[in-house]
Amino acid sequence: MARIPKTFIDELIARANIVEVVSSRIALKKAGREYKACCPFHNEKTPSFWVSPEKQFYHCFGCGAHGTALGFLMEHDRLPFPEAVEELAGTLGLTVPYEGGAAQPRRESTTLYELMAQVARFYVEALGASPRARQYLDKRGLNREVVEQFGIGYAPNSWNDVLRRFGATESARRQLVEAGLVVACTRARTPR
Question: Which of 74, 83, 79, 81 has the alpha carbon at shortest distance from 108?
């Protein structure tokens, strides 16, 4: 069975920018030298989730969740360790070295159902991070039970959040197009 060298994992964690990793999945707000947000791992109204760029870790004072950029990917995206290492290495443009045999066959992509479930979770988390969207739902008479029962979410005011978050690779972008979550644009090249 192939193993990922510990030295590579340590280097990967050291090179990763935890603020970039976390902010690509949840909305962070600058608070002094650190960043804060409502915790993506439990339901809360006031932010208790802190990300420290200096120490390169996150911590939630509400539920106790804490860890590095790699741990955040495993917890938030529900990725097994090798896939989280591959994901983080891919964002940094690194190739994961394996020792002691051939690399484990990596599942190239998730199924469309899994992808759509991940995007739905993304929108639900975005709702939790937007006071304005929650106020709108309150004004419409939708209480927390209804919101949770129907998985109501919020699309942030950005044209490419889903693509940035879920389209890291060419195959992932193709899946987003196939699921109808993004539109493929083809640019016509002008002859020179």
Answer: 83
Unique residue bearing structure tokens 């998985």: 151
Q: Which residues make Cβ contacts (< 8 Å) with residue 88, sequence separation at least 6?
A: 12, 16, 21, 69, 70, 73
Q: What token pair was written down for 44?
A: 């809360």
Neighbours of 84 (CB within 10 A): 21
What tens digit of pLDDT does each residue of 136-171 get? 988 999 888 888 888 898 888 877 888 877 877 777
Q: How many CB atoms lie within 10 A of CB 71?
A: 17
Instruction: Return the amino acid letter for 56.
Output: Q
Contact 129, 25 (CB under 8 A): no
Residue 62's alpha-carbon distances to 36, 54, 59, 117, 163, in angstroms, are 12, 21, 9, 25, 30
Per-residue CA distances from 109 to 41, 105, 160, 168, 175 (Å): 24, 12, 20, 11, 8
83, 169 contact by CB (below 8 A)? no
Record the pTM.
0.55
